[in-house]
Amino acid sequence: MISYVKGQLMTLDEGSITIEISGIGYEVLCANPFHFQDFLNKEVKVHTYHYIREDNQSLYGFKKKEDKQLFAQLLNVSGIGPKGALAILGTVSVPEFVSAIEQEDDKYLTKFPGVGKKTARQMILDLKGKLVVWLPDEENEDTIFYQEDITSKQKRALLDDAMEALKALGYTDKEVKIVRSELEKANHSKVDDYVRRGLQLLMKS
């Protein structure tokens, strides 16, 4: 099992990033490669899941270790494959997903691509009680979700990058423009936070 890879981030596209290590380029599939764009042409460490089947070997990459761990848990659910697991991780944060599982909110879970009511119930059956370690501590919730203050110019730059990332994922200019008006109300300090929130809004529309 390849636990992580550490090397220079050479390229990123809609579905993967390429990391060069000792002259070898490793293609790593990601839920949202643009989460890593700040590391382009720099050294980056990516947590990886080595998916092995008779006809397929793929590396899936994650910025956070808990994302990788949730991906592995999702693969154990009947009806969820790597593509479906990535779609979930690209749309929602780990605590939000765990909260939906613990509350048995199958209506929320069926909003994910390829997840019907049967699969949603199966996820709840298989995962409830196993993921609570990733729920935020209510006493420290303000600290967990604290965002650094940023200037208006910095915020515009972050939003511009997030809009380009959403368009690269296949959304139209019209869809992205509508989402931007909502995202302007938020106050994030990272592009990937805006992208994640944008995906959530697009999924609800």
Automatic annotation (TrEMBL):
Source species taxonomy: Bacteria, Bacillati, Bacillota, Bacilli, Bacillales
Keyword NAD in record: no
Gene Ontology terms for molecular function: ATP binding; four-way junction DNA binding; four-way junction helicase activity
Functional note: The RuvA-RuvB-RuvC complex processes Holliday junction (HJ) DNA during genetic recombination and DNA repair, while the RuvA-RuvB complex plays an important role in the rescue of blocked DNA replication forks via replication fork reversal (RFR). RuvA specifically binds to HJ cruciform DNA, conferring on it an open structure. The RuvB hexamer acts as an ATP-dependent pump, pulling dsDNA into and through the RuvAB complex. HJ branch migration allows RuvC to scan DNA until it finds its consensus sequence, where it cleaves and resolves the cruciform DNA.
Region listing for Domain III, in residue ranges: 159-205
Signal peptide range in chain numbering: none
HAMAP family given in the database record: DNA_HJ_migration_RuvA (MF_00031)
Protein name: Holliday junction branch migration complex subunit RuvA
Keywords, ordered alphabetically: ATP-binding, Cytoplasm, DNA damage, DNA recombination, DNA repair, DNA-binding, Helicase, Hydrolase, Nucleotide-binding
CDD domains recorded: UBA_RuvA_C
Pfam families: HHH_5 (PF14520), RuvA_C (PF07499), RuvA_N (PF01330)
Family: Belongs to the RuvA family.
Entry keyword annotation includes Hydrolase: yes
